[in-house]
Specification:
242 residues; alpha/beta; Alpha/beta knot; Trp Operon Repressor, Chain A; 2 domains; five-stranded parallel sheet; 9 strands; tRNA_m1G_MeTrfase_TrmD; S-adenosyl-L-methionine; tRNA (guanine(37)-N1)-methyltransferase activity; transferase
C-alpha cells in the first residue's frame, strides 16, 4: 500500500510513523509512506500557501495553486492512487470504510488546514472525503495519521496474528469482549474462570456474550446494524430482564 500525504506540516508525522505497527509495516515493506510539503509548490519566494477568503470572514483559506501543483506532481507518479481529503464534511471513518480503503493500491491524502481549502480543489481533484467525527481539529494531519493506522492494520501480514484484526471492536459490528492476562488475581479481582478452563467452545461463547453485553450497555445503536443469531437474541432478552 502506497500512502502519499500532502501537508503544510510534514514534521508532525515523524513520531507516529516511526513507532509500533506502522514502523514494522514499513520495515517489512508492506506500506510505503511519503510526505509532501505543499509549500514547496508555492509560486512566491515566501512559499505562501494560504490567503484571505473572497467575501470576507475570519481565518484563511489554503490557496489553489500550491495544492494543485502538489496533487498533480504526486498523481503523475501514482496514477492509480485515490485522492482523499480530510474534512468535517466527509463520510465518517468506520471499520467498513477502513476495509474499503485497504483494498486500494494507494491513496493520496490531502491534509486540510485553516478554514479549509479552495473549493476548486474538490471540484477538480478530490475523489473521497473522510471525517473522524463531529468535531473540529486544528488540521487534517491527525486525521491522516488515523486513516493510515486504521488501514495499515487491515493489510495482510501487518499484524502478528491474522486473528487480531478480525477480533477487534467493530469488525463484526460489536464492541470487543474484555481481555485479561497474568496474574489471575489482582486486588481481589479475579480472571473469569471460563478463560482459564481450557474449554475453547465455552470461551468462544463467553466472549460472544460479553461483546453483546458491552455493546448493549455502551453502544446499543450498533445492534441494529448486525445480524444476530437466535442465541444472541435470547441472551440480549435475558439482559433486558435483569
Amino acid at each position: 500500500m502506497k500512502f502519499d500525504i500532502l501537508t503544510l506540516f510534514p514534521a508532525m508525522f515523524s513520531g507516529p510513523f516511526d513507532e509500533s505497527i506502522i514502523r514494522r509495516a514499513k520495515d517489512k515493506q508492506l506500506i510505503d509512506i511519503s510526505l509532501h510539503n505543499i509549500r514547496n509548490f508555492a509560486t512566491d519566494k515566501h512559499q505562501t500557501a494560504d490567503d484571505a477568503p473572497y467575501g470576507g470572514g475570519a481565518g484563511m483559506v489554503m490557496k489553489v495553486e500550491p495544492l494543485a501543483g502538489c496533487i498533480e506532481s504526486v498523481k503523475s507518479q501514482h496514477p492509480s492512487s485515490k485522492i482523499i481529503i480530510t474534512s468535517p464534511r466527509g463520510r465518517r471513518l468506520t471499520h467498513a470504510v477502513a476495509s474499503e480503503l485497504a483494498s486500494l493500491p494507494g491513496m493520496i491524502i490531502i491534509c486540510g488546514r485553516y478554514e479549509g481549502i479552495d473549493e476548486r480543489i474538490r471540484e477538480l481533484y478530490v475523489e473521497d472525503d473522510i471525517s473522524l467525527g463531529d468535531f473540529v481539529l486544528s488540521g487534517g494531519e491527525i486525521a491522516a495519521m488515523t486513516i493510515v493506522d486504521a488501514v495499515t492494520r487491515l493489510l495482510p501480514g501487518v499484524l502478528g496474528s491474522g486473528e487480531s484484526a478480525e477480533t477487534d471492536s467493530f469488525c463484526d459490528g460489536l464492541l470487543e469482549y474484555p481481555h485479561y492476562t497474568r496474574p489471575t488475581e489482582f486486588k481481589g479481582l479475579k480472571v473469569p474462570d471460563v478463560l482459564i478452563s481450557g474449554n475453547h467452545e465455552n470461551i468462544r461463547k463467553w466472549r460472544r456474550r460479553e461483546s453483546l453485553r458491552t455493546t448493549r450497555i455502551l453502544r446499543p445503536d450498533l445492534l441494529d446494524g448486525i445480524e444476530l443469531t437466535r442465541e444472541d437474541r435470547k441472551f440480549l432478552a435475558e439482559l433486558d430482564l435483569v
